[in-house]
Amino acid sequence: MVGHPSVRGTGAAPLITPAVLMNASPHPTRPPYPHERFRTGPEPRRLARPQIAAHRLCAPLTTVFFGETAMATGSKIQTKPRWTTAALGTALGTALTLGGLLSVALAINPATPLEIDGNANDDAGGGTDWAAELPLNGPGETFIIDQVPPLGTETFFQGGGSKDDNNPTKWGNNTGTATNPNKNNITNAYAKAINVQFPASDQPGHPAVPHDHLIIYFGADRFDNEGDAALGFWFTQNEIKINGNGFTGDHTDKDILVQVDYVNGGARAEIQVFKWQGDGTGTHGSPKVLKELAFGGADGVTVCNAASPSAPANTACATTNEFEIDEFWAFVPNDPSPPNKMPARSFFEGGIDITTLIGPVCFSSFLAETRSSHSETAQLKDFALGNFDLCNVKVTKACDTTSPVYIPGTDLFKTEHVVTISNDGFGSVFDVQFQDNSITSTTQCDIIKIGNTVQNPTIPIGDNDDWKNVVNELAGGTSIPVRLMCLSPANSFANQVTVRASSTDNGTPIVADTDDTDTEDADNVAACHLDIQPLVDLTKDCKGLSINPTTFKPQVCATIKVTNPIASGQYLDVSSIKNYPGTGGVVGTGVNVTAAFQTANGGSLALPNNGLPVSFDICYEPTAADSGAGNPDGTLDPSKVKFSDTVEVVAIGRAADAEVKDSDDAFCKLCPECPACPTP
User: Fold this and answer.
1) CA distance 599 to 602
2) Mean pLDDT of 416-420
3) Is 359 exposed, middle or buried (0-12, 13-18, 19+ CB in 10 A)?
4) From CA 97, how far away is CA 106, in angstroms rounded?
5) Which UniProt keywords apply (predicted)?
6) Are 333 and 223 in contact, with CB atoms under 8 Å apart?
7) What share of residues in the chain are helix, strand, coil (percent, to 5)?
């Protein structure tokens, strides 16, 4: 169950600043978080960090960072003051000469941005710590609440396939009774990524200029501290999700597993780092899909890896609380006495240099786990699963509702669309590209603006599978708009785009969490519809009566004119033109005369809005004259005999995709009136 911690304690430390780093001044009190539950009474006692003997230090003098080291402040990065070898060597020499003991945080890394010291207190004079980083809900960080009932829903591993050397799709889970034994119950888990600046050429193949390493810090606490502890921490590139009583999301090469074990009742600590090796050429597991990258063991609570061909010493470190420590978030142990405290060996934390071990990578999920034993093939017991997006590119697309223009000469609609590409992950992504998936033989789009830069000339997008460069680097938490101009016969044109990026400059585009597709939603498409009402004009005039040369019967002939006015602003597609004999208007089925119009219009039913009429004649044999042609004495008056009819045109406006109609009626007299006609 993923959530945000309820932070406790008015004595939690402020976000770290250079002043705090440089001066061991009294620890100030940070402002409260809005959602915190406060303890009443005096500030809780801060326990001194445990001291360890010099021969148990994890970090030799040769591993101290040179230059500047990035320091996390909330979700931002600031620069930590320089550490010099001379100053550090003097300090260590003095400490050893005087028989002094160094703290765990100094042993792991003297310039670590986040203290790995067996507590969550943001102690003065060191790096930041978990208490100062809460609530851990930003990019590249997570806090997962996994309390046992009744404080929360307990979901745990269940099933024979729930092992570290299996894909998550083979794992099983269940919800209900808490995991047994109690020592395997995870109560909370947390992780945070920090970019740390390393010196130039710190390792073979690394840049010859100061550069960042991705350091991931992780931690968890458990319900009961009795007995050994076997914990694991997965960082996966594909997103892992619960799916019923199973999981979705397979492992990918370069997924990282950190195993932290405390054996012999916690007297000895071990840390082991694996990467997933999907081809089965790893070193551990059955099959061998886990490749060991680093291993270390030490007596006591703190452990770092030893140097190996695949990793320098101190690339991964972990520790636990040797003594009772202050509690800074909702935590209820099996033995809650004294209150607001974490019992010894209930809290675990560590850090790992991802850049040194595997290079650039984009993780999506973080999973903390417990196992039945210390083997990498042991049955998994409990877990806490959450999102951990390091690289996360999103794209949204919207039509500019002020942009639609109909171009009658081409019968196309011109629209503009704003594509917003956002990096809502932790670090920068590179080589950001997008493709327009809606390009067809009749629809084309050009890039007219990237960010604030107008593209002159515009950049044709090309085919729907062509990738177009947008920006070389997009920092975490930033976005860039791209404006497109499209020509399409559709009104409205619903466009779709896909974006992708790389985790390194000139690197291979990565799929997991760095690609996204968006289609304009129905409301936006409707709002971008060009509302132009079509117009049509029809007139009908009697041409006269004549004799049908085939049947030798009288026939009525009329001239019909159909016009698409300029004000219509669009082409019309004529659906039908029908003639309805008689005085009843448009009733019945009528006689279809559309073919006569089409012939007169050059064989086309399309009518441009040029204001020029298309004229054609029709003739038909009437079946009866209009009524009202008789005299008072009942005799027929030929001068009053006439034949009426009505013609209607139905057309569709291309811009509006709307139907439009017009009609006109006329009559032809049997005996036309003329001044020269003699009086009977």
Assistant:
1) 5
2) 93
3) middle
4) 17
5) Membrane, Transmembrane, Transmembrane helix
6) yes
7) 10, 40, 50
pLDDT single digits (tens) 52-111: 322 222 333 222 222 223 333 332 222 222 222 222 232 323 332 323 222 333 233 534
First to last CA, the chain: 106
Q: What are phi and psi of 130, to 5 degrees?
A: -55, -40
Any idea what DSSP says for residue 94?
A: H
Q: Is 170 helix (H, G, I), strand (E, B) or coil?
A: helix
> Residue holding tokens 């619903």?
494
Torsion sign (Cα): 646, 647, 652, 653: negative
> Angle at CA 139, nearest 5°, toward 2 and 155?
15
The DSSP letter of residue 11 is: T
Question: Residues of 25-59 as b/e, b for ≥16 C-beta within 10 angstroms?
Answer: eebeebeeeeebeeeeeeebebbebbebeeebbbb
Looking at residue 245, its pLDDT comes to 94
Q: What is the pLDDT of residues 217-275, one digit of tens each?
A: 999 999 999 888 899 999 998 889 999 999 999 999 999 999 999 988 778 999 999 99
| Dihedral in degrees, nearest 10, Cα atoms 390, 393, 394, 397 | 170
Q: Which pLDDT does position 151 carry in this prediction?
A: 59
pTM confidence score = 0.62
Q: Is the peptide bond before 5 cis (omega within 30 degrees of 0)?
A: no
Q: Three-class SS string for 100-158? A: CCEEHHHHHCCCCCECCCCCCCCCCCCCECHHHHCCCCCCCEEEEECCCCCCCCCEEEC
Tokens of 514: 């760095």
379-403 burial: b if 16+ Cβ within 10 Å, else e: bbbbbbbbbbbbbbbbbbbbbbeeb
Looking at residue 156, its amino acid is: F
Strand stretches in 148-255, DSSP E: 155-157, 173-175, 186-198, 211-222, 229-236, 241-243, 246-248
Give the residue carrying structure tokens 């704003």: 418
For 499-539, how does the pLDDT look when each residue is reduced to its tens digit (9 = 90+)? 998 877 777 776 544 567 777 788 888 888 888 889 999 99
Write the burial class of residue 267 (CB in 10 Å: 0-12 exposed, 13-18 middle, 19+ buried).
exposed
| Cβ neighbours of 210 (radius 10 Å) | 15
Per-residue pLDDT tens for 660-669?
999 998 888 8
Question: For tokens 């049997």, what's the residue?
Answer: 670
- How many angstroms from the chain centroid is the CA of residue 556? 70
Cα 277–chain centre separation: 28
Nearest CA to 519 out of 490, 501, 499 is that of: 499
What is the pLDDT, as a whole number, of residue 47? Answer: 30
Distance of CA 574 to the CA centre of its chain: 46
Q: How far is CA 127 from the centre of its chain?
A: 32
Alpha helices (H) along 455-561: 522-527
CA 378-381-387 angle, 5° bins: 110
What distances in angstroms separate CA 625 from CA 52, 96, 548, 560, 671, one per listed residue?
119, 126, 17, 21, 12
- Give the span between the Cα atoms of 130 and 419, in whole angstroms: 37
